[in-house]
């Protein structure tokens, strides 16, 4: 798992845009996000050959990456 110092993009729209641009290394998906959201993120990751992890709760992901609102996913940018 990427550490807290990696740059990330937040939310579906930004993650999908950066996936298309080839800039995402990994997607971290909150286990408590809506199932449709989780499924969409997994499918997008697979389509672009990017690894993903499902785990922490939305508030834990937000706290880990310094996000002020709960987030269903973050995309870790390539270094």
Describe the structure.
The protein is α+β, with helices and mostly antiparallel strands. It has a single domain, classed as 2-Layer Sandwich (60s Ribosomal Protein L30, Chain: A), CATH 3.30.1330. It is built from three helices and four strands; from the N terminus they run βαβαβαβ. Strands 1-4-2-3 form a four-stranded mixed beta sheet, sandwiched between helices. α2 links the parallel β2 and β3. The longest helix has 13 residues. It is globular. The protein starts with 7 loop residues before the first strand and ends with a strand. The mean pLDDT is 91.
User: How many alpha or pi helices?
Assistant: 3
- CATH C-level class is Alpha Beta
Q: In order across it, which strands form the biggest sheet? A: 1-4-2-3
Look up the CATH topology: 60s Ribosomal Protein L30, Chain: A
How widely separated are the two ends? 14 Å
Our count of domains comes out at 1
Low-confidence stretches: none
Largest sheet: 4 strands, mixed
Percent range for helical residues? 25-40%
> In angstroms, what is the radius of gyration?
11 Å
**Helix vs. strand class:** alpha+beta
Secondary-structure element sequence? EHEHEHE
Shape: globular
CATH superfamily: Ribosomal protein L30/S12
User: How much β-strand is present in the residues?
Assistant: 25-35%
Architecture (CATH level 2) name:
2-Layer Sandwich
Strand segment tally: 4
Rounded mean pLDDT score = 91
Please name the defining characteristics of this protein.
single chain; 79 residues; alpha+beta; 60s Ribosomal Protein L30, Chain: A; four-stranded mixed β-sheet; 3 helices; 4 strands; 25% strand
């Amino acid at each position: 798992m990427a550490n807290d110092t990696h740059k990330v993009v937040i939310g579906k729209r930004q993650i999908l845009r950066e996936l298309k641009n080839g800039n995402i290394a990994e997607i971290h998906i909150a286990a408590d996000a809506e199932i449709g959201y989780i499924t969409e993120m997994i499918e997008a990751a697979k389509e672009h050959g990017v690894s993903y992890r499902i785990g922490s709760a939305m508030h834990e992901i937000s706290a880990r990456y310094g996000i002020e609102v709960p987030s269903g996913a973050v995309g870790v940018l390539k270094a």
